[in-house]
Amino acid sequence: MIILFYFFLLTVQQMDVEFDKNYFWTSIDKVQDKNIYRIKNLKQPYYYVQVTLFQNDLSFFLMYDLNQIAQLNSSKGDYIRRTRFLKIEPNGNIIYISTQSNSTSGYYNITIWGSKEEYCDNSCSYNGKCTDDGCECKSGLIGTDCHQMALEIQDEQTQLNLFGDEIQFFYLNIDDYQEMDIQLRFSTDSHQGIEIIIQLTEAIIFPSQTQLDNESNFIKIFKIYESQPLDLIVTGSITQQDNIQIVLAARQINGLLNTFVSSLIINLSKYNKYENTVSIIVIIIIVIVISGAVIIIIVMFFVCKNIRKGKQLRQQERERQARYRDQSGNPHQDQLNLFDFLTPVLINQINNQDNCIICLCNLNDNQEVRQTCCHHNFHSECIKEWLSKNKKECPVCRTNIAPKDVPTNPIPNQ
């Protein structure tokens, strides 16, 4: 517990803000995991906070809450890009201001003052309207102080032309599409690609070689190429909030080395997730049907092959019996070839016998197989040679192969 307590003190610093007689306070502090500032004894209706970073820190976040320590994703605040300005109306509550960063190096200046007057940052006064939640920028301007020019996405298709390392900002006002799922498709004619940074934050993020925090809930980084467009789906759960704005920045990858103009095309459309789901189900059904048809065709092929081979064997058996009847009815023919009494069989009809007992080799489909009346199987050539030696018995059990009272002659060895 002591170790955890000291760890908490090292990573979280809390201090009380003591104003001078003009209700003014300022401090230069070190960037660390979390700093907390508490304001008590509130005597002014409005309090203003301004933070200026002495270095570039893409993970630095400023937030505030009333009567409780501010927490990321639940309290009001935003990322800082060099300077951030907050207006707080406490209504008699204790103010907690927090700064948070993934970095532990560098410094920043925080200034807090109280006033009876209500005003916004100077840039906001020129380019936007001051509201309780901050600046409401005019069309074509974005940022916490409305200083950054940007193109608003309003039409079904918007095209931006990017040259060299030029950065262009554009934005989409989500509150214009209440309770509607929308889709943004980004495509380009650049084979070297375009980097797109999507921001759910009022802070202006300038793309740079510095790696941004891509795991953040407020920043997403994507790269698109000529053959790899990007689809962004904005769901109704986001549009149910008020005054939500998606800010995007784009520039060419390796723009300093590229002297060509690249086009970024943005298509805005309504997204119907049910139609998309139906399309996926149809594709799955088609794949299953085609796969099933292929399997059935393969099975039918082998079944027909076995049926055809069986018919051939039965036809040979009928021809053998016909020859036997012709020979037995002919008084001049009193002898019979023993080999004709052996039945041709399929390999899959052989049970408990893998080898020919005469040559000791495997029985397989490559050679014809004959079966004796005692149900022993041999290669046709092997049993034919056996019978040519005037042997009428089965090589396995010595059973007489020829039927009774039927005279036979040995098969001439060919």
From TrEMBL:
InterPro entries in UniProt: Znf_RING
Subcellular location: Membrane
Transmembrane segments: 278-304
Pfam family, one: zf-RING_2
GO MF entries: zinc ion binding
Keywords linked to the UniProt accession: Membrane, Metal-binding, Signal, Transmembrane, Transmembrane helix, Zinc, Zinc-finger
Listed GO CC annotations: membrane
Predominant cellular place of this UniProt entry's protein: membrane
Domain RING-type: 356-398
Signal sequence, renumbered to the chain: 1-19
SMART domains: RING (SM00184)
Keyword Nucleotidyltransferase: no
Superkingdom of origin: Eukaryota
UniProt protein name: RING-type domain-containing protein
Native source organism of the sequence: Paramecium pentaurelia
